[in-house]
Design brief:
alpha/beta, Collagenase (Catalytic Domain), five-stranded mixed beta sheet, globular, binds zinc ion, hydrolase, metalloendopeptidase activity, zinc, Peptidase M10 metallopeptidase domain-containing protein
């Protein structure tokens, strides 16, 4: 009887390991390069500003921009301006996962939106870049409507909340 119970416990432990939900996806080496594909050059600086905002959030993760990389460089976060599948979305991001780690990310800004870069109104390139870069790092949506990682349409919001920062810190 003892052997049966021990076997049962072992089985539960093994099964638990197999069915345990995987932790949120992250970049394995905690660094991710940003590249620009078919993306307006005037919108690059707002993206780099957003990059800097996440880089000072207090986590061990950082984005970096390497201008020597080509737009088709793999293992990167690539920005494009084009058609999003959900046409009502200002932007969309897709992460590609390998062995539980993010290895590639593509961010597409909706070319049908009337974008601004001066922060006077939404949709603001820097605000949306900040949100989408969060996803590229592995951060999901938060439940607080004042966060950058809130799922709804964002007003101009260029600073991360403590909640946003903690979401990144929980991954890295
Ligand atoms: Zn989102």
């Amino acid at each position: 009887m003892k052997k049966v119970i021990l076997g049962l416990i072992l089985l539960i432990l093994i099964a638990g390991t197999l069915i345990a939900p995987a932790s949120a996806d992250s970049w394995q080496n905690k660094r991710a390069p940003i590249v620009f594909g078919a993306f307006p050059s005037a919108y690059e600086q707002p993206v780099l500003n957003a990059m800097g905002t996440w880089n000072t959030a207090g986590s061990n993760f950082s984005f970096y921009y390497d201008s020597s990389r080509s737009r088709f460089e793999p293992r990167s976060i690539a920005f494009y301006m084009g058609n999003t599948i959900n046409t009502s979305s200002a932007a969309a991001s897709t992460n590609y996962i390998s062995n539980g780690y993010i290895v590639d990310s593509v961010i597409t800004f909706n070319s049908s939106c009337n974008w601004t870069t001066n922060g006077s109104r939404a949709p603001d390139v820097q605000t949306v870049a900040l949100h989408e870069l969060g996803h590229s790092a592995g951060v999901g949506h938060t439940s607080n409507s004042s966060d950058v990682m809130w799922s709804g349409a964002l007003p101009v919001r260029r600073n991360l909340t403590t909640n946003d920062k903690n979401a990144l810190k929980s991954l890295y």
